[in-house]
Amino acid sequence: MTNREIVLKFYEEVFNGWDLSAIDSYIKEDYIQHNPNCKTGREGFREFAEFFLGLKPHMDILLCAEEGDTVFVFFKCTLGNGAVNKVCDIYRLEDGMLAEHWDVVEHDVHLYEPKHDNGIF
After folding, report:
1. Percentage of the chain surpassing pLDDT 70?
2. Pick from 11, 47, 32, 45: which is nearest to 100 by CA?
3. 46-63 pLDDT, tens digit each
4. How far is CA 56 from CA 8, 16, 38, 73, in A?
5. Partners of 73 in the β-ladder
6. What is the distance between the alpha carbons of residues 80 and 84, in angstroms, rounded to a whole number?
7. Mind listing the pLDDT tens digit for each residue in 87-110?
8. What is the pTM (predicted TM-score) of this model?
9. What's the CA gap between 68 and 63, in Å, rounded?
């Protein structure tokens, strides 16, 4: 399985499937986190995921690319309350597991009034 396929499967099982039991299969114990709102390590991710999955998210993946040990995922994240976020997650994988994470998030894009006709996504 490629790194890209691993990340896409992770999104389907954990984020869209709301399955916390799958975390140990995907996240390294010493997972390095760069999002300032999330603790580092597998248990830090688990703590974040318990909160986040309570928001009933659904990720519609728009683009996903792999270069070496790095995978970029660009997606529309719709929460259970109707809020929509535009997100790009970047992962470094090691031995088939997520080892490091960065992200860029644009919150509440459903509230925007674009100054163009190109769409938000």
Report:
1. 100
2. 32
3. 999 999 999 999 999 999
4. 18, 9, 18, 19
5. 64, 89
6. 9
7. 999 999 999 999 999 999 999 999
8. 0.93
9. 17
User: Would you say residue 42 has pLDDT above 90?
Assistant: yes
Residue 51 Cα distances to 22, 46, 66, 95, angstroms: 16, 9, 28, 27
Cβ atoms of 40 and 33 closer than 8 Å: yes
Give me the amino acid identity at 39. Answer: K
What pLDDT is attached to residue 112?
87
> Among residues 18, 46, 34, 2, which one has the least CA distance to residue 104?
34
SS3 percent helix, strand, coil of the chain, rounded to 5, is 30, 40, 30
68 vs 41, 72, 89, 91, 99, CA distance in Å? Answer: 22, 11, 16, 11, 14
